[in-house]
């Protein structure tokens, strides 16, 4: 027998091995066709990581807003400053000039 015939017989034995065929079929099924396939698990994991980042961002924003709210409730000066900056409120004896910078 030549080397080519021996190698083709070996390859035939490997590729037509019933255990290998079943294993390959199982891996393909789990990767693409199952309800909980690997692709959807990967997407869900990526989505979960994005959600965790959003949770951290919103928790930090909540903390900032709580501090700002406590500061405004505790002092009239900070409340007045906030009203002047955001709502352009003024006293009767004052004039407000709004200067917009050009881009």
Describe the structure.
This protein is mostly helical and 103 residues long. The chain has one domain (13-87). It has helices spanning 3-15, 18-33, 38-74, 76-87. The longest helix has 37 residues, at 38-74. The relative contact order is 0.04.
In short:
This protein is mainly alpha-helical. The chain has helices spanning about 5-15, 20-35, 40-75, 75-85.
The major β-sheet equals:
none
Could you tell me the strand content as a percent range?
A: under 5%
Query: Which value, in Å, is the CA radius of gyration?
Result: 34 Å
Q: Which residue ranges are poorly predicted, with pLDDT under 50 across at least 5 consecutive positions? A: none
- State the secondary-structure class: mainly alpha
In total, the number of domains comes to 1
Termini separation comes to 83 Å
Helical segment count:
4
Order of helices and strands: HHHH
Principal-axes geometry comes out as: rod-shaped
User: What's the number of extended β-strand segments?
Assistant: 0
Report the average pLDDT across residues.
Answer: 86
Q: How much helical structure, as a percent, in the residues?
A: over 70%
């Amino acid at each position: 027998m030549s080397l080519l015939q021996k190698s083709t017989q070996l390859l035939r034995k490997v590729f037509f091995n019933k255990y290998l065929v079943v294993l390959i079929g199982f891996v393909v099924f789990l990767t693409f066709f199952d309800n909980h396939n690997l692709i959807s698990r990967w997407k869900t994991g990526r989505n979960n990581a994005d959600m965790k980042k959003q949770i951290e961002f919103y928790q930090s924003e909540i903390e900032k807003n709580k501090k700002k709210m406590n500061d405004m409730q505790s002092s009239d000066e900070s409340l007045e400053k906030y009203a002047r900056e955001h709502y352009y409120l003024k006293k009767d004896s004052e004039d407000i000039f709004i200067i917009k910078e050009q881009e």
